[in-house]
Amino acid sequence: MSIRLFVTGGTFDKEYDEISGDLIFNETQVEKMLKLGRSKIDVNIRTLMMIDSLFMSAEDRKNIVNNCKKAKENKILITHGTDTMVETAKELAAESINKTIILTGAMVPYAFGSSDGLFNLGSALSFCQILKPGVYIAMNGKVFDWCNVRKNQKLGIFEELN
User: Fold this and answer.
1) Phi and psi of 39, rounded to 5°?
2) pLDDT tens, 47-80?
3) Per DSSP, what are the bridge partners of residue 24?
4) Cα–Cα 20 to 30 A to 161, which of 6, 18, 32, 36?
5) Quick one: CA dihedral 70, 127, 129, 116, positive or negative?
6) Closest Cα to residue 16, out of 4, 25, 7, 5?
């Protein structure tokens, strides 16, 4: 079984620019993370974009949806910014793509060393292998149906609505 992994940016891949003091995108951290985690899963990685999800447009989301539809793999993992992850999941669900699609992200950039990203990536890869077709969000060891989750901005966690 092969998993298609689409990179879209988000906090997962942000780095600190020492000159400007800004968080920037340079390159995806996903391959380093898979190597560090000693993953033995067959993963095909493709970077679709490297942006903060707050700046994701309708065209960007359409690009994600189209790539999920075209992917030959039936298991898809998307790294995504946490602020609009649910919005992208909603767009994917509206298309009724008969594949298992998991979105995951991080609250702290992987490059900072104390990130939840490595754990979230590993958990999401596991969920991707065992869940039936549908759209899900995987964060901090939990998996949620796309339509029953929200990001709690005050606590910095994802939680069920009901």
Assistant:
1) -65, 135
2) 999 998 888 999 999 999 999 999 999 999 999 9
3) 15
4) 6
5) positive
6) 25
Q: Cα-flanking dihedrals φ and ψ of residue 106, to 5°?
A: -150, 150
Cβ atoms 102, 136 nearer than 8 A: yes
Token pair belonging to 142: 């939990």
The residue range of the domain holding 138 is 2-160
Q: Give the span between the Cα atoms of 147 and 86, in whole angstroms.
A: 8
Cα-to-chain-centroid distance, residue 66: 16
Instruction: Return the half-sphere exposure (C-beta side, CA atoms, 13 A cut-off) of residue 39.
Output: 22
pLDDT tens digits along 127-138: 999 999 999 999
> How many structural domains comprise the chain?
1
The token duo for 143 is: 């998996």
Are 160 and 147 in contact by the 8 Å Cβ rule? The answer is no
The CATH number of residue 109's host domain is 3.40.50.1170
The residue among 106, 104, 122 whose CA lies nearest residue 114 is 106
- Predicted model pTM: 0.91
